[in-house]
Amino acid sequence: MSATVLVLVEAVNDYLHILEDSGFNLILAPTRELRAAAIKEHGQRIDAVLTRGPLGFFADEMAALPHLKIICVIGAGYEHVDLAAAHAAGITVTNGAGANASSVADHAMALLLSLVRDIPRADASVRRGEWRKLSRPTLEGMRLGVLGLGAVGLAIAKRAARGFDMSVSYHNRRPRTDVDYQYCASPVELAAACDFLIIATPGGADTRHAIDKAALQALGADGFVVNIARASVIATDDLIQALRDGTIAGAALDVFDDEPSVPDALKALDNVVLTPHVAGLSPQASEATVSLVNQNLLAFFAGQPVLTPIRFAP
Q: What is the mean pLDDT of residues 65-69?
C-alpha cells in the first residue's frame, strides 16, 4: 500500500511502524506549526489523515488536500472533526471506538479510588514526615453512576459491579437492552441516584455541560465525580464553585477545557485529583488503537467496508 498518511497525533509513535509495515507512507506533524507546513508542502499527495478528537480536522484543511479520502480518529471521540465538510467532500471518517476501553476504565477506577480514599494527600503527608490518618469511604456497596454506557462505560460498570460489589446506574441517549443496570432518564436523575459519578460520554454539542450546577447539586455533598471523557461535558465554572462550597465532596479529572492549561482554581483545591489526559495511554491500548487504524486503512484502500465508520447525521 503506497497511500500517504498525515499523522497529527503525538502519543502513538512507538506503534506507527504497524502502518509502515503495511506499506503506508507517513508524514508526521504533531504540532500546529508542523501541521500547517505539512498541509502546505505535501497537500497534493496526502490520501489519509490520522488525528484525535481534540485535535480534529477542519473544512479548510480538507479543502487544501485534493486527494484526501479518509480521516481516521484514534479514540472514540471525534468532536473537532468537521463531519459535514467530510461528508460533502466524500471523505470517509472512522474512529477507534473500544480500542482503549480497558485502559480508560482502569484509569477511571484508579482516579475514583485515589479520590475517595484521599491517596494523594495521604502520600504527601507521609513524605512530609506526618502521620495523617482520616476515615474515608469505601467503594463496596456504594452506588455508581456512569454517564455514557459505550465501550468505556461498560468496562467501568463491569469493574465496579464485579470488583467492588457496587450498584450501577447509567444515562445514555437511549436505554440499552443488553444490560441489567438501572437506566436514568437524565444526567440530573443519574446524579441524584449515585454516590460516585463517572463521565464516559463523547464530547461535542450534544453533551456540552450535561453536568452543570443542577446535576452537581443532585450529586450532593457526599458525592464524587470523575471525568475521563471530555472536559466540555462538565461546566468547569460550576464544578469549581461546587468544589469550593462543598456542594460535592470531590472531583478527579483527566481532561481539561484548554489542554495542557489547567485552571489555577482547580490546582488550588485539595479535594481534586488531576492527571494529564493519560487515561487512554498504555502500551496495549496504543498498539490496539494503531492496529485498528491500520485495519480501517487497509480495508478502505482495498475497496472494502471500514470497521468503525462515523455516520454523518445532518
A: 98
